[in-house]
Amino acid sequence: MSLLSRIRQAIDGLTEWIGRGAALLVVPLTLAMSYEVVSRHFFGSPTLWAYELGFMLMGIHFLLAGPAALKHNQHVRIDLLYARFSPRWRGLVDLVLMLTLAIPAVWFIIDRYGAFAWQAFETGERSGQSAWNPPIWPFRFLIVAAFGLLLLQMVATCIRCIEAIAGRRNYPYE
């Protein structure tokens, strides 16, 4: 097994592990929203924290689903032509698009949003969305981390594409 294949497998394993963990975020999200509904409608006492906790948990859950979807080839694509391509051509098309569009875009987001998250940390910025008003920097750093994982998974996908172009795998279905 080549070094690139081992790197790809390590990244795939990390993505799988984090993706399964992220799926568990649905549990506290559901509990928080259920508590809010019961508290608001049955006791007339809405919480100060459920709204913000809900959007933070859902946001991270959604962002961490991206790398897992990429790993499992679950992203939506219009495949009128793509489905007819051989595995080598699919690998080549995906590699070119990944290197020229996707990776630079995600790198740009990490760079810009990372600075934004750091500024929130330095200034002690708070959310300003509710009376709870928690510090926002942990959430922003989690967004940067999620895009970092997406970037790593894009590297693994590029390796998978290279393996397909070399004829060593039936991309992307293997």
Shape: elongated
Helix content: over 70%
The averaged pLDDT comes out at: 93
Low-confidence stretches: none
Number of strands: 0
- Secondary-structure class: mainly alpha
Give the number of helices. 5
Distance from first to last alpha carbon:
16 Å
Order of helices and strands: HHHHH
What's the number of domains? 1
Query: How much β-strand is present in the residues?
Result: under 5%
Radius of gyration: 20 Å
Largest sheet: none
Highlighted features:
0% strand, 5 helices, mainly alpha, single chain
Summarize the structure in words.
This protein is an all-alpha fold. It has five helices and no strands. It has one domain. Helix 1 packs antiparallel against helix 3 (50-71) and helix 1 packs across helix 5. It has helices spanning 3-23, 26-43, 50-71, 87-123, 137-165. The model has no long low-confidence stretch (mean pLDDT 93). Helices cover 73% and strands 0% of the residues.
Present the secondary structure layout:
Blueprint: H1 3-23, H2 26-43, H3 50-71, H4 87-123, H5 137-165
